[in-house]
Amino acid sequence: MSANQDDANLLEVRGLTKTFGTLTACDDIDLTVAKGEIHALLGENGAGKSTLVKMLFGTLEPNSGEIFWNGQAVTITNPGFAKKLGIGMVFQHFSLFEALTAAENIALSLDDGSPISTIAAKARALSYSYGLPLDPQSLVGDLSVGERQRIEIIRCLLQTPQLIILDEPTSVLTPQEADKLFETLERLRSEGKSILYISHRLEEVKRICDRATVLRHGKVVGHCNPRKETAASLARMMVGNDVQAVVRAPAQGIETAQPLLEICALSRKPATPFSIPLRNINLTVRAGEVIGIAGVAGNGQGEFFESVSGEVPQQDAASVRIRGKDAGGLSITGRRLMGAAFVPEERLGHGAAPRMKLSENLLLSRHATDGKVFVGAGGMVKSDAIYAAAQRIIKAMDVRKSAADPEAAALSGGNLQKFIVGRELDRRPSVMVVNQPTWGVDAGAAAHIRQTLIELARSGSAVLVISQDLDELFEISDAIAVMHNGELSKPLPIAEATFEKIGLLMGGAEPGHAEHALETS
Amino acid sequence: MDITVNILLTIATAATPLLIAAIGELVVERSGVLNLGVEGMMIMGAVGGFGAGYLTGSPWIGLLAAIALGAVFSLLFAVMTLSLATNQVATGLSLTLLGLGLSGMMGTSFVGQPGARLPNLDIPGLTAMPVIGRLLFGQDPIFYISIALTAAVMWFLFKTRTGLTLRSIGDSHTSAHALGIEVIRYRYLAVIFGGACAGLAGGHLSLVYTPQWVENMTAGRGWIALALVVFASWRPWRVLAGAYIFGAVWIGQLHAQAFGIPVPSQLLSSLPYLATIVVLVLISRNKRLTMMNTPASLGQPFVPDR
Predict the structure, then answer these.
(1) Rounded to a whole number, what is the distance in Å from the CA of B171 to chain A's nearest CA?
(2) What is the rounded average pLDDT of the residues A241-252?
(3) CATH of the domain at B187
(4) Domains in chain A, ordered, with CATH?
(5) Which tens digit of pLDDT belongs to each residue from B102-134?
(6) Which of A210, A309, A469, A511 is the most exposed place for a label (fewest CB within 10 A)?
(7) Which residue of B has its CA nearest to A108?
(8) Which helix (H) or strand (E) holds A20?
(9) CA A492 → CA A252, A461, A484, distances in Å?
């Protein structure tokens, strides 16, 4: 840093504080972002990252503290003003309109009056140049999480901001796509733009970020140069103590173990004109093993999960078999009664009813399987038993919350995910199918969820994990299969799998040719 | 031939107030606000239009008064639901009850008085043409306003950036807020536009349809307009179609009753409702289009975090 440090600072935050009732979400935060740097904001769920960023973007008003933009004190009262200053934001919980097309969504955040067709052309060109291909005419409601995030990123870049705030941007990208994004970010940095980068992937932060600010429980606990730290030392700063590394004991005698979940020739026609058909999927998950399914968002994982969980029952009853019995025609409840448990990707709306309490959500998913415990004579609900079970799950999974039995929507994403996973694990299911187990969950909590999934498998259950997070799949899986365009590759035993091989399969290389493509590339 | 023309003219007159009130409510609902007070705003427009026309002798001043009273009355709803975040359903219902009561009180001295009627269009040479002359160039001014309004709302919602913004607010007010769109301001303007339209529709009743003041003279037309918006899946041209189908079957069954057709009159009276619903359900079979056009945040109060 040179002597005229003040001039180099694009954004400076002094003593920013935000309280909600008795909770101090941000406590006296100091932060500086220099021109042309990628600055990481690290912290666990509930550390105050989102609250801080919302104050910078004008959707929350700070109780006290000052924000300086290019050395000038500013009061950011609304997102419109933040955009005028030159602050762009890519949200983790997307701010898109489902009933509108991608182009219309982008147009809404641009203030110029150019026609939609011009904006669509610009967006398409920009998206391809950054390696994030996008069809501007597609309806957002039809798109996967990953594709929606591309719209958010492109929308932000089209506003040509000076500071770009990215909240967990790579969670839904393939390693190759993430590389392209990093190139983009580096290009933006070389153009003199600044980036505030929120991520829980410490390797990524080490790779691209120049400086890092670490938050814990609403306070700044340190500034550091992530390149000089190790992933473990960064994690220690975030969590306050050492993060337990996930331990995966080798699976024993899996070849002869009983198959608990069998998918046989599962096919499905596309439900809407834009969704992906499933093409002749075969997979066996045996007692004691964890199988991972990798793939870029929107390649049929959602459709596959719906078919396996029974959200959409199949015509062919033998296409899904649970513990040796046909289950293809059964509903979710029917499959649960056979000993299976499911954790869908969307927490609010699928995994939990947002406006209902945690105990009520527990009853909703387990009234059939645990009828004897939760429902008494004459169909009366046993509130005490449900409450006690909810508290047991909360304790087992270390769910952090503001009230004894809050509404699901009141929890942060990571904490709600811990509760939903815990709710299913609490049943000791013999088949567990999880879609994106740790999306948006911080390092400490994610390690906990991953460890419990491995332990469930080792205790004799079959575990199937669909995830876009390759690090996660390599950490927990005994074999990894890849889904591409509705087809599923053969599971690759973890000893033979590499990032490159899986990445190529995710990009659509022929299953048999992955090795060959590697040699020639 | 003359009979046909006369019937077509009465159909247009019956459909016009429904069309105007429904188009106004469509804009309101596209912004994500459910205002069930259409009936109340309409009757306020009717009494205000009649009163101003009667007192000044000018139906044009009556027309302006009808629009103004509907808009002012809707402002009450806007302040309650948007600034104070009250429940939209309950507030809308009480707006209707308040409007019916208040208009009755305001109108006591108008009962039985002769009102001012808006003159029909009369263009020398054109209006006198056979058949099409009276249909195209000889109707009341509000008829022309209703058609122009429908076209203007279609253009506004689907061709302008402001219209896109309004639709986006109806789809997700939280996303719109995150983009820096002033959700509450747009909704205020939409609600006031809807109120002005409902007032105009009420003015049509007391200045054109039956130029006199009768308590409760809207007779449920506000509710029909509300239903039309939903059954038309929030699309303007379908509202137009629905209003005219309703008007046509309504006039048709009146004639059928006059001819003494041996069908219970109650059944005939229910025909307009049935026919409109059947037709609109048939044309909205496309689930995708319906999904795209339904305002997802309809009726939810919006309170930004602070």
Answers:
(1) 6
(2) 77
(3) 1.10.3470
(4) 5-239 (3.40.50.300), 246-339+429-521 (3.40.50.300), 348-428 (no CATH)
(5) 999 999 999 989 888 999 888 888 888 887 888
(6) A511
(7) B165
(8) strand A9-20
(9) 17, 20, 15
Quote the tokens at residue A255. 């070849």
Alpha-carbon gap, residue A16 to A308, rounded angstroms: 47
- pLDDT at position A203: 82
Q: Which chain A residues contact residue B290 at CB under 8 A?
A: none
Helix (H) or strand (E) holding A64, with range, is: strand A64-69
Locate A373 and state its tokens. Answer: 């415990």
What is the count of residue pairs from A and B with beta carbons less than 8 Å apart? Answer: 72
Instruction: Using alpha carbons, list the distances in angstroms from residue A222 to A12, A200, A226, B222.
Output: 16, 16, 11, 63
Nearest CA in chain B to A155: B179
**Residue A506, token pair as written in the block:** 């995710």
Contact criterion met (CB < 8 Å) for B175 and A95: yes
Judge if ipTM > 0.85. no
What is the pLDDT, as a whole number, of residue A3?
40
User: φ and ψ at B87, to 5 degrees?
Assistant: -65, 125
The two tokens of residue B45 are 């427009």
Predicted confidence at residue B284, as pLDDT, reads 74
Give the tens place of pLDDT for each residue, A36-77: 999 999 887 678 888 899 899 988 889 999 999 999 999 998
DSSP reduced 3-state for A220: strand
The residue segments making up the domain with residue B22 are 2-293
Residue B304: inside a domain: no
Q: What residue in B sits closest to A57 (Cα-Cα)? A: B178
Does B303 map to a domain?
no
**Of residues B161, B171, B304, nearest to A100 (C-beta):** B171
Q: Is A156 touching B (CB cutoff 8 A)?
A: no
